[in-house]
Amino acid sequence: MIVEDFRGFRRLDLQGLKGLNLVVGRNNCGKTSLLEGLALVSDPRRAPELPGLLRATSGQSSPRFFRWLIRDGAGGRTRLRAGLPAGWASVFLDWTIPQTEPLEHALGVPPLYVVCGSDGLRLRYQVTSGQTRDLASLVLGFGRAVRRRDGEDLIHRILKTVDPRIARVRVDLDKDGQDIMVDIGLTESVPLAQVGQGVYRLVAILSDIVGSGAAVCLIDEIENGLHHTALIDVFTGLAEAAAIADVQLFVTTHSHECLVAAHEAMKARSEYDLAVIRLFRVEEGVQGRVLERERIEAAIAGGVDVRS
After folding, report:
1. What is the CATH number for 306?
2. Is 89 part of a structural domain of the chain?
3. Which mean pLDDT values do the consecutive 10-residue runs of the chain (308 residues) have?
4. Angle 197-212/135-146 helices, nearest 10 degrees?
5. Domain, as residue range, for 253
6. Is 166 inside any structural domain?
7. Residue in 25, 66, 210 with CA at minimum distance from that of residue 53
8. What is the model's pTM?
9. Less crowded by CB within 10 Å, the N or C end of the chain?
């Protein structure tokens, strides 16, 4: 992936991305901006959604948001290009674009033009918030996922890699309303919330991945609401989802435990499909490098915190 003059990035060139990509770094080093760039290049038609995609919004935030998508002092134009499993996609942002180029969107005041590159690739993406999903929206998302022809079997297969006791997960309706019930071999199915926070969060993420049919899934601050003991289970499920559902995952975290858990989950698989994207600030802007297995293992063994 190549990012030029987008937000705090002067030029960011990330090579060696995998099925599961863990984005780490200190606060304000560009983790959320990288996810926004991935969303924009995956499907430029959804550019108007960017202000509220991963950030809190209030009032007339959109014009201010779009004003700062192009790096300050960059001359009014930015370029993003990503090599994703489905192929290469590119997008340009420009304040003063020639009329001969194909216009996709005009945003902000003055207008910021969003123009697709000549490859014209569009990828469906899904964003999963770092906040714990409320039950009502989770029921809707899970229902949408299991309506897919293979959706229910896919979710059950992944959940069983996390907890072999899980035989079936179903939406249940009674006088108290709808709930998601889990068969773990007891005399009755139990509510999802009582199975464990790790499984609850994983059902929410899998519902997004399977129900949306996305090629790219962006998960912000995955550790929110999770105890560290649940992280290996969650990343085991994510690794299985990435492989089975043919989806590329980008996951931000502030947690060193997440790094260790992702490594342990992927190490147990036949193919190690994990990359760590480490972002850091230097004088000329945000830089980053992609760490593959050898460096990830060396960092963990040596007690090196790759987030700093």
Report:
1. 3.40.50
2. yes
3. 86 90 90 90 81 69 71 74 68 61 48 63 76 82 86 85 87 81 93 86 86 86 82 88 86 91 94 94 85 93 76
4. 50
5. 1-124+214-308
6. no
7. 66
8. 0.85
9. C
